[in-house]
Amino acid sequence: MVDYSILNTKSLPFSAKEDFYRELQNFFMILNYLRDKGYYKSIRSMVDVKSLDIIESTNLQKLLGEIRDRDMKRRVTSLFTNKIIPFEYPISTTGEELGLLEYRYLDERVDEIGYADVFQTLLISFNSDEKWNKDRLNLKKIILEESGDYIEQEVEIYNVSKIEHLDSNSEIFEKIDNEKIENLIKNFKETYKTIFKKLEFSIDIVKDIEYLDKRVLRDAIAILYQLEIGKKELTDFRYSGESESVMNNPELKESI
Predict the structure, then answer these.
(1) Distance in angstroms (rounded) separating the CA atoms of residues 123 and 112
(2) What are the angstrom distances between the C-alpha of 56 and each of 12, 15, 20, 22, 250?
(3) Are 145 and 29 spatial neighbours (Cβ–Cβ below 8 Å)?
(4) pLDDT digits (tens, 9 = 90+) for 47-60
(5) CB count, 10 Å around CB of 142?
(6) Residue 55: left (phi > 0), alpha (psi -120 to 50), or beta?
(7) Neighbours of 19 (CB within 10 A)
(8) Which of 86, 212, 236, 250 satisfies CB 3.0 to 4.6 Å to 217 for a cystine?
């Protein structure tokens, strides 16, 4: 799976500033969840978000000039300046390269949204309209076969525009979790630093972990990963105590 999600730029602009301000906190909560769990390194779009109208006829620069509340201006600025999860563009692979002609949603062409299907990743939308207030979107996908025939398929993609949609889309996050656990099991030494940000490992653990029985290794890594992303707390498990190397290191002992 890719390590980025897709931004639905068609969910902009909002019809009124009040609507955008009201939904801003919700959008922050979504991004904070994805960042804290380490699910995506960036959010990609086909166009630069800063060039889009945030409110009808009002782009980001104009909007910031009109905001008088300092706290609100700070929050809006932090959203679009990569403070939480970086926004990146353009999406590298084009639909034409993949043999796709177009995607449609509610009879509107939505190729950018279709990339969530292409890369089997999450679509992130602003809750600016009821049509985006869904945890799944059903798209029509049109493909050109080598024979020259057109094929139309219906595909379902994961979408989140409200914090509640994160729970109902737990399936895609479970896939990410399982993939990360498998990568750790196969190559712990090369991958653990990119996944574990809260947990520290002693040199002895890193050196010897590959010699563990595979079943024990799988269970141990699954537990450590659950601790890392906050699915479990240390008190949820029974354990016999810290290793000697941890007990003799005040900094590591304090972090447990």
Answers:
(1) 10
(2) 8, 6, 11, 16, 57
(3) no
(4) 998 899 999 999 99
(5) 17
(6) beta
(7) 16
(8) 212
